[in-house]
Every structure is written in structure tokens, then in C-alpha cells.
Design goal:
By secondary structure, the chain is mainly alpha-helical. The protein has helices spanning about 10-15, 30-45, 45-65, 110-115, and strands at about 85, 105. The chain has two domains: about 10-65, no CATH class; about 85-115, no CATH class. The protein has a two-stranded antiparallel sheet. It is elongated.
Length: about 120
Amino acid sequence: MASYYSGVGTFPKAINYCRDTMWNMSWIDDETLHAAREEMLLAYPDETAVDAIHKNLMPYLLGKCYVIGMPEGYSYRFWHPWVRNFSGELSVGYYNTTNYQQYVWIDQEMKEYMGY
């Protein structure tokens, strides 16, 4: 896996390590992984079942060592406390990387209380 960022729903969709997905940057093509992905997709939205399948899959996937994780540098995001429904996410919403403004709002009372 050549990227640290993969988007929402990564683990039940197994998008980092199954063929025909845009985030499988290492071109992993493993039948065991594909079968587990199909199981997770069929079990969804039962999160307990998906979690169990995923937990059982991880020793196999990690044992294959398809990726050697590299350290990432620190990343910082600052925002005013009156910006609500935002916690420093890189993107807000489902694969939404440019129009997050529709999800956040300004708490005008807090802003005024703080002297702005």
C-alpha cells in the first residue's frame, strides 16, 4: 500500500488491498483478501460481523507484509473554537475534499462572547 490516506469506509470495503479499487496502489491481487472483502460487504451493515471478519483477516494480511509503513511527519490544523462540526479533519463528508463548508457552521453567540 503506497499511500497513507485512503478515504472513508476503508476497512469494510478493503479498498487498500483488493483489486479494482482506486486505493490499491500496490496492485495487491490475493484471493484470500478478495474472499474476505466479499464476506465483509455481504455482512455490512452488521458492524459486529464485519469487525469479526476483519479481525480474523488481519493476521493473514499483516503476515504478507505487502507494505512497510513509513513514518509520517506531524500535521497540524488550527481553527477557531466557534467553528462547529469540525475537528481538524482533512476532509469532511464522504470523499469530500473541497466543499466541506456545507457541513460546518459558525456559532455566532460563542464568537461574540469571545470578543470577535
